[in-house]
Fold this protein.
Amino acid sequence: MKAVRLIFRKPFPTAYSIEYLFNQLHKEFIQTGIPVKGETLPHYSKGLLPRLKNLLSLFKHKNEIVHVTGDVHYALLGALRSKRMLTMHDVAFIGRTKGIARLIYKWLWVKIPVALAHKVVVISEEVKTDLLEHVTIKPGKLAVVTNFIDDIYQPVERKFNAEKPRILQIGTAYNKNVNRLIRALENLPVTLVIIGKHNSEIKELLLQCKIDYIWLSGLTLQEVHAEYLKADILTYVSLKEGFGMPILEAQSTGLPLVTSNCSAMPDVAGQGAVFVDPYNVDSIRSGIVTVIKDNALREKNTSLAYLNVRRYSRERVVADYMEIYKELSA
């Protein structure tokens, strides 16, 4: 088998999910005997010159499988002397940009890297659908390999606080739909725990709606895990997601889940959730109230959730990537 080189972006302090995922896979690949090395790009992906230097840093690799693990798709352009592989976690960033920036992202992050790649991996059917709206890919070049659940997330005994449930919300970006969630919680006796970057607009709405809240940021993996264990409900009513790891993290620990009925969420969550219309405040509120009041539904969904998470084992993800590496080595 050809040597595999996992290429990582230089991570910003608050962005490390891709690195964590592939560092775990890296360890598994080594144990299976794959000749694999990890390499972090020398510069943050910000500005033209640092990105150009990142790209050129890969030109030294020859006759390997160069696997760009996410985000810095443009770096694949520097791996012209090797087999090229790209994992794409999301392409929604194209829709969030306009004008020249949109054209740059579309061509240097999507069209050209995908054209140059010998294999493109996406993490969900949702990302696959989104990607195919922008590019045409030959059959066999595109594969879906999902993320896996970290071993830290295990079933725990829970005592549901129906009097004043603690509701966990992961993320504060626009697509996380926190504003509608807050309006849905107005006048409900709950504590909302938000993990994510601080946002003055969200804070103002929390005060306006008189929500009892706790806002946390910069947490370690262990600290985030601790918040799952303290919570009574996870709300994940995003407008759009490429995957949605909090869904599986909640399900793995037996945490009741309210999530969106669109984008990647139904596929990832299976039957172990209460689904709501994320564009409708009343629907979000109704879903949360149902979970609070219906003990039998919570127990049923927890059982279904435990069945669902079996689809996302580390072993299966490792096996899927190994098959691709073997294919590219042939």
The chain has a mean pLDDT of 95. The radius of gyration is 21 Å.
